[in-house]
Amino acid sequence: MGTARYLEIAETLRQAILGGELPVGGRLPSESALMTRWGASRGTVRQAVALLTSEGLVGSRQGARRIVLSRERRHSFAELNSFAQWAHGLGLAVTSRILLRARRPAGPEEAEGLGVPEGSEILHVLRVRHLDGEPTMLERTAYAQWAAPAVEALPEECVSIMDSLARDAGIVAQYGEHLIDAVAAGGQDAHLLGVRRGSPLLRQRHVSLDQGGRAIEWSDDRYRPGSVTFSTSNSAAAAPLGRRIGDRAV
Amino acid sequence: MGTARYLEIAETLRQAILGGELPVGGRLPSESALMTRWGASRGTVRQAVALLTSEGLVGSRQGARRIVLSRERRHSFAELNSFAQWAHGLGLAVTSRILLRARRPAGPEEAEGLGVPEGSEILHVLRVRHLDGEPTMLERTAYAQWAAPAVEALPEECVSIMDSLARDAGIVAQYGEHLIDAVAAGGQDAHLLGVRRGSPLLRQRHVSLDQGGRAIEWSDDRYRPGSVTFSTSNSAAAAPLGRRIGDRAV
DNA sequence: TAGTGGTCTAGACCACCGG
DNA sequence: CGGTGGTCTAGACCACTAG
Fold it and tell me: What residue intervals traverse the membrane (chains A, B) (predicted)?
């Protein structure tokens, strides 16, 4: 079985919205129409439209037909956690370079993020990432000790650490927690990103957890001004998060 | 009928998580256990845990028991769209002051955000908002022409414009679309927020839509550095968005 | 008032995880 | 292997919206 029935229905509707056949502000087919159209039960149809609702494409109110809210594609989970996968989905070339890799005691913020005692050993990694050749993001990551050997084995130019860890070491990120704010570029930030000291940077701090809820990494990622925008939509129930480059929706 | 069955189940589990009875990293009761415990069908139980999953409290994988990921409360929809409601939930005092209210032609960004032709008339509002007396956020909002009279009728010190519009004019925001990035403070920003020119500001641009998908307002909100952080969690399916102040989770 | 979505039930088969 | 969650069906009643 390739894909589930409800995913098939959702994907077809999504394409109709993205393609403009279902215009923004217009109405979605009713559940009963979709049931006969696809020969599916109501539960399956509702699962499909619930997915689109959670993506912010569709709005829903009891008693009224669902309406199309937006025609912008949103991110999958993998894309939010992985810069490489996100950029790949946009057709942009990503290069990365690890500048520093060292074991050291966890500072207070790293310790809290990883859920380990302050001062316990972590693997610190400093990494710059380029988008189409432009330095775009600076990553300061603390890896949990149990994941450190796998990270130390990676090449300096490794494009996606998370993908490599999944492939080579069976370490898979399942959940993430993210904090987004703005900070001024420090001396190192300015130098490595090619901006002036004090420039506004968009900062995304996040922790990645594996299937069992164990913390894999805690990271402080800083984006060059204007390079990336996070986007999100919300309605009564759901609010997925996404990212943008310049004015292009992703 | 007060609340739906699945909301009751979800709320009980949520309280157990927030209260620490279901510790982070621990396992949730199985679906069948919840079915007998509540005398509910499987569908209803699944609806409850799906809600918790979408809130980032619970992680889910086929074949394995669900686990508790986090014990942080997240935002409701209303809180994401309304600064006043969000601050109120934290027990913070909000004051607001409208500095400028003028009809004028829509600029390119306002026109695109509202989905109206460039140059058509909108109501521009400039507003400062204080948290516990500190200037925290600067709002530059364009209201759609049909909503303008209701906004013009509001007092200068109106704490929550959206709440007032709902109460007095029946204009209710149902959906929102948000863009988050970082910008340098301009002259007016710096002056009104009490920061230095060029300071990094967290910017949230957003459009609010009513029940029918009509745009009510397009807004460019800028937060003083360090005052507010957006937070989000993600897993395979969902990624709700939230906000923080300093280090306090909200 | 007819149509629509929100909630709920009681079954079923399957894929996956863990011991 | 048994337990668990993922998917799907075929019904039902209700609350709300829209014309």
Answer: none
